[in-house]
Specification:
5-stranded mixed beta sheet, globular, alpha/beta
Chain lengths: ~425, ~425
């Protein structure tokens, strides 16, 4: 089975939105072992949508249409599919009720325009909506339904959920290919991509000769560098075993720069170590302005080990509330005092702190990107100076993950003593 | 003249690279007043490139091909264009010399594979390369050259330079149209897309009859709903005036749900109002865990009006530091006490607070999504209960923007009293 993608929306052609959906879908199809040779973007124009859909169905077994399922008059993906199928749209009362309920739960009245989202081409199967108001569609095309058009919403998280729940499984069933392709991502922080690649080069050379598993590097900014292992095997158990073996190989080469796999974030890695060691945490933030607390509380279960944070943005707040000595607040001393102070004020075992210059202009004679990270565990208080690249937002993001990584490395060391 | 875009590269289909080039080109074409109805991505496969190019030339006057001009064997855009033109590739010795010189200046020897970059379809015009080693191409198609194919490199800054220097001017000359197209985005928070659309429906109907300006809605999750105005005019001054007039029309219909235009964020809108009124702000955060502070400090100049925040994640921190009365912490009373408490502790004019249930499980008998927002200005203290949709992250994001919007509305009211 091969499957192509059509992204619908005039805003995509005008460059007002970058079409990341097609890339996401392309990656998912590749991982599932489904060939995808073309991707098309087209505006909110019925004749043109119909024409690209016809072209796609001539050369591909399956087509995923993304976007144009909203409630407004320019959302016409449903109409285009019905026209290509040569069938009318039929309003489904049960979908109307689901949408009405969704609005009700939010204390809102459903607008009449939302009724259009309950229109389904005759003969199509509905993919029930779980997040947004638009259901997806599975539409058989051709006398024996030998081709298929899927319609999914253009809102990324709605689309992604529906792809994984309904579209990819349906495509895999059609393909009849029973071999299983699985991926696992090893997440790292602290090495440049080129250095990381050199570290694992011998292993890459060996895998190149074998052809399976394959390894790819994805530089992901403040999410670190991801090392993705992809394996192909006869069944899931074998695929999982290959993934486990390869993960062990790479972890042995990469050491402590690995902080987790797949969706495990830096904050989750830190949270697990804190929970294992029965420690609580408090944070004093200056340039990060709440980002460290925000990331930590993103981890489910953070209420077990996170006490809270003090965002001491104004210098006076640092002096008054955290007992930082009067003087330059972008300094090692200030970082130490903030970490020790917040640990005491919030009654935690561990205190972390960030202070520095996010920009756009220098401060206290310090250039943009100068950041001090502080940590206090019991009587041990330390500070680390670092210089971070990029604009205001990137400096803040990198400071956030850097201070979390500092804590992670110290907690790892503690487990070895 | 209308012009479509074909991006060439298997890595684009696999989702290893997001195709930002097509978006960039799309925006440039729109600004230049050139219609663009389709964008296609295709892999490094000769037959498939030829087939999409033929389809494009049937429906568009001009085609921009982006990528596939490199020196390696899978760079075959030149071959595909020559095949569609029905002409051979001819090696240009002068291009060979330019490439050899470029390598020489970098102290390198030119590889033989780079010779392929000097191959030009017979009858095509060369766009001299200035940055990378690949020249661009302008290729007339058809008996009288009534259609045209442009080839530009896939490296973004090489492509962008060539587009502005050669491709867009050539297209404008062919079109003979000197009109200018400009867009402006009005940013809103607080209405569902369908309700918003109904509110401005009379205006949309009127514009539909006129055809200029045009209006589009973009639902952007926690960034609210964007209303984009696009105008076409004889020159830039007239285009700006049309934008101004249409913005006034829409603002009059939409009222206070408009918080800014173009890149103005909610935190910038709030920051401006605070600065105008000479007020300072402090925030007490529970479920948002630092997100409110993080967004506020993202605004350049926030140090003028933002004192700081207390992330009181643990209930005891609420009682001890913010003077919240012991009892249920997901409540109106707690939200009020937090807002008043943080205002006092951090010495600010205004206190804001968030407390609620982000999930994944209910808390104190309150369902996931229950959120209380508090605000204290002087002696005035209030709290608002709301029910927010989505998963943990979305509940937190929506709580963040909702509390900022609450403050914005109150500050707007203050300017009217």
């Amino acid at each position: 089975v091969n499957c192509e993608v059509i992204a619908v929306g005039t805003e995509l052609l005008l460059g007002q939105i970058v079409d990341t959906n097609s890339s996401w879908i392309g990656e998912r199809l590749a991982t599932a072992g489904i060939d995808s040779h073309y991707q098309t973007k087209v505006g909110d124009n019925l004749d043109r949508i119909v024409s690209v859909l016809r072209i796609a169905l001539e050369r591909s077994d399956a087509v995923i249409m993304c976007g144009g399922l909203g409630p407004t008059q320019d959302d016409i993906t449903r109409e285009a599919i019905a026209q290509v199928m040569g069938v009318p749209l039929v309003r489904h009362d049960d979908i109307v009720e689901v949408i009405r309920e969704m609005f009700g739960r939010r204390g809102r009245e459903m607008a009449d325009s939302n009724l259009r989202q309950a229109d389904v081409p005759e003969g199509a199967t509905v993919i029930p909506q779980r997040i947004g108001t638009a259901p997806g569609l599975i539409c058989p095309v051709g006398p024996n339904g030998e081709r298929v058009v899927y319609a999914v919403p253009g809102v990324p998280y709605e689309m992604e959920e529906m792809m994984d729940r309904a579209v990819v499984p349906d495509l895999q069933e059609r393909s009849g290919d029973r071999s299983v392709i699985l991926s696992r991502t090893i997440r790292t922080w602290g090495l440049a991509e080129s250095t990381l690649a050199e570290t694992v080069q011998p292993r890459l050379d060996e895998l190149d000769r074998r052809g399976n598993p394959t390894i790819a590097f994805l530089a992901s900014g403040m999410e670190g560098i991801k090392v993705r292992i992809t394996v192909k095997a006869a069944d899931e158990a074998n695929a999982q075993q290959l993934l486990d073996e390869e993960e062990d190989e790479l972890r042995a080469m990469l050491g402590d720069i690995v902080f987790g796999t797949d969706s495990v974030s830096m904050e989750q890695a830190v949270g697990r170590l804190l929970a294992d060691q029965g420690l609580t945490l408090a944070v004093a933030e200056s340039l990060t302005g709440g980002m460290v607390g925000s990331r930590l509380t993103n981890a489910v279960g953070s209420s077990e080990w996170f006490r809270g944070a003090i965002v001491a943005y104004d210098s006076q707040v640092k002096f008054d509330l955290l007992d930082v000595p009067e003087g330059p607040v972008v300094s090692e001393d200030a970082a130490r005092a903030m970490a020790a102070g917040v640990r005491k004020v919030l009654g935690a075992d561990v205190g972390l702190s960030t202070t520095g210059v996010a920009g756009p202009t220098e401060q206290d004679g310090m250039p943009v990107g100068t950041v001090f990270l502080g940590m206090a565990i019991g009587d041990h208080v330390e500070a680390l100076e670092t210089r971070l690249p990029g604009d205001r937002d990137r400096v803040r993001q990198f400071a956030t993950i850097s201070v979390l990584n500092l804590l992670r490395l110290r907690l790892l060391e503690a487990t070895r003593n």
